[in-house]
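Summary of Year 1 activities. Much of the first year was spent building the evaluation harness for sequence design. The harness presents a backbone, in tokenized form, and records the residue chosen at every position. We chose the following record to illustrate the format because it has been used consistently in internal testing since the harness was completed.
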């Protein structure tokens, strides 16, 4: 993905600054990190254990090549973490005297294995949704009977939420469970109570080997729980979070990061918040730079991947230079006086007959980012950047007029739901009716309604 290309390129250049020879393996030639100026040795090979061993042997036997003595798996997303774990289990790293830096396999297992993660959260006193682990069809059926519907199925060790999904009715459960078990490389799923309608937040953190932790950015999902973060419109910093709730979330994130064990680098923590009483539950923690890390880096100007790479080789946050001031250290938390809106980009028109409804499995192929002094300014800029022929979210003559089609689109989210919200408001649908159908926070809907009111006011005037 381009986000990991961004992180991988930053990390490679950061390591080269320290005089370290960098070898990169990537199966995608259409990336910046495969450019010769990024890595000292670039290998375009399938991301498999055989490819990794082939490279390690080549570097060991060829006197013109440096011996590879360390591997940094936290810059390549879920694929890199899974490969790292598989290589450890096969004894590849030990056989070739390669040290894993930035994270250890135990920390990866604690976060990626759904049962280990759930138990860890219980042990440290962080709330989680009621759930049961299942390694077989029978165990899954028993878990569903105990938890009740609606529920969510989350396979372990999967990429982009693959195989996961919500199950609202008992009749749909068998097929969803089968899909989840088949998607997980360890044949394991978490059957969890669905917290539909709760708000979703992310925190981007950095931790060094001295256990110093900083929060780089808070990110809020425009859409409530039920849509993969990669498919949701996201806003930085969080707009509707009370200070009390933010401080509690921050404390829990730091506690979670310190509990996973040996880890130095960037980390992404996802939370869900009950809009009625501000109860917080942890969804997951990723011990790596993620899709959101690239967004947070661009939003704040803090080079997360660059700093994370230096932390992985032993630097502490207070020993690294602040990239902007050049006189202070990197041990600080950025503050934003502007708003960032990320909107995912979909290509459903190239996949005729594809299910366009959004859920727990990511379907976006890219994203755009808008920066503004207010949420609505950033949203309008991001909508214009999508390159789908829209001039923002309205006033371009392309709005829908069929109220049934609009209401169906609000209830079954797809790529165009933000446009349909504006269309519904323009046709006089009450804000509370839209909120009940979409469960989107009232603050966001009020912002769009103000835009509709301004548009209506402007229509009263002409340029003459």
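For this record, the design step produced the sequence shown next.
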């Amino acid at each position: 993905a381009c986000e990991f290309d961004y992180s991988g390129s930053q990390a490679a250049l950061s390591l080269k600054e320290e005089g370290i020879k960098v070898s990169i393996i990537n199966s995608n030639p259409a990336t910046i990190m495969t450019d010769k100026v990024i890595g000292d040795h670039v290998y375009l090979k399938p991301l498999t254990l055989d490819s990794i061993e082939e490279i390690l042997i080549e570097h060991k036997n060829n006197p013109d090549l440096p011996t590879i003595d360390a591997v940094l798996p936290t810059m390549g997303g879920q694929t890199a973490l899974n490969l790292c774990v598989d290589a450890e289990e096969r004894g590849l790293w030990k056989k070739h005297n390669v040290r894993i830096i930035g994270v250890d396999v135990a920390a990866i297992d604690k976060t990626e294995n759904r049962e280990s993660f759930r138990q860890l959260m219980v042990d440290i006193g962080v709330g989680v949704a009621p759930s049961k682990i299942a390694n077989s069809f029978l165990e899954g059926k028993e878990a569903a009977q105990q938890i009740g519907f609606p529920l969510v199925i989350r396979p372990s060790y999967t990429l982009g939420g693959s195989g996961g999904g919500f199950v609202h009715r008992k009749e749909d459960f068998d097929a969803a469970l089968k899909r989840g078990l088949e998607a997980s490389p360890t044949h394991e799923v978490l059957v969890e109570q669905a917290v539909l309608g709760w708000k979703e937040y992310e925190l981007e953190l950095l931790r060094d080997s001295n256990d110093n932790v900083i929060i780089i950015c808070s990110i809020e999902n425009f859409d409530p729980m039920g849509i993969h973060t990669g498919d949701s419109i996201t806003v930085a910093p969080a707009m509707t979070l009370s200070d009390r709730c933010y401080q509690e979330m921050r404390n829990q994130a730091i506690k979670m990061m310190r509990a996973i064990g040996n880890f130095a680098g960037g980390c992404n923590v996802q939370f869900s918040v009950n809009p009625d009483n501000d109860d917080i539950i942890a969804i997951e923690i990723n011990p790596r730079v993620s899709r959101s890390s690239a967004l947070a880096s661009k939003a704040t100007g803090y080079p997360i991947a660059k700093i994370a790479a230096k932390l992985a080789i032993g630097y502490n946050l207070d020993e690294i230079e602040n990239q902007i001031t050049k006189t202070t250290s990197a041990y600080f938390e950025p503050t934003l006086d502007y708003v960032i809106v990320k909107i995912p980009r979909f290509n459903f028109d190239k996949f005729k007959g594809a299910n366009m409804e959004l859920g727990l499995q990511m379907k976006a192929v890219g994203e755009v980012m808008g920066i503004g002094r207010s949420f609505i300014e950033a949203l309008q800029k991001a909508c214009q950047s999508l390159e789908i022929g829209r001039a923002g979210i309205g006033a371009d003559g392309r709005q829908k007029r069929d109220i049934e089609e609009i209401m169906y689109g609000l209830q079954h989210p797809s790529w165009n739901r933000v446009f349909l919200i504006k269309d519904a408001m323009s046709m006089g649908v009450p804000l509370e009716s839209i909120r009940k159908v979409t469960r989107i926070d009232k603050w966001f809907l009020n912002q769009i309604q103000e835009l509709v009111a301004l548009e209506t006011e402007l229509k009263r005037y002409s340029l003459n």
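The mean pLDDT is 90. Quantitative recovery figures across the full test set are reported in Table 2.
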